[in-house]
Inverse folding.
């Protein structure tokens, strides 16, 4: 059963009420100016918060520490050396929240990986000036 979630007048929307680690399903109902409507198929996603992290120099090397993210199964650490492009450096278990790198100094970004697969979809809805976003009740 779907319930009305929010009215939108654009072809994009951000659900600012989403909680990390929670699976959400969405559908969009498009309306014409004459009142006709059509409901999209539903799409599901597990929302994960962006990890908060810090970096510090230690005698052993560079230590990166991050906050646990609800719903994360693992973390991927990305690094960039000088003007090079970002590259995946290491995948870490969700039970760990820090890593020490020996030697050179890197710029690092931890990203959370969901514990369950999810579908991601982008779509454009045209021919309508208003719509509504729906979520299962």
């Amino acid at each position: 059963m779907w319930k009305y979630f929010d009215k939108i007048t654009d072809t994009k929307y951000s659900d600012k009420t989403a909680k990390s680690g929670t699976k959400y399903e969405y559908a969009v109902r498009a309306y014409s100016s004459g009142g006709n409507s059509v409901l999209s198929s539903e799409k599901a996603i597990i929302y994960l918060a962006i990890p908060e992290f810090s970096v510090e120099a230690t005698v052993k090397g560079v230590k990166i520490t991050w906050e646990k993210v609800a719903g994360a199964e693992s973390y991927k650490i990305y690094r960039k050396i000088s003007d090079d492009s970002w590259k995946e450096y290491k995948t870490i278990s969700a039970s760990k929240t820090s890593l020490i790198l020996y030697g050179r100094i890197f710029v690092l970004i931890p990203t959370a990986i969901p514990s369950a697969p999810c579908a991601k979809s982008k779509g454009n809805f045209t021919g309508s000036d208003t719509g509504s976003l729906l979520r299962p009740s």
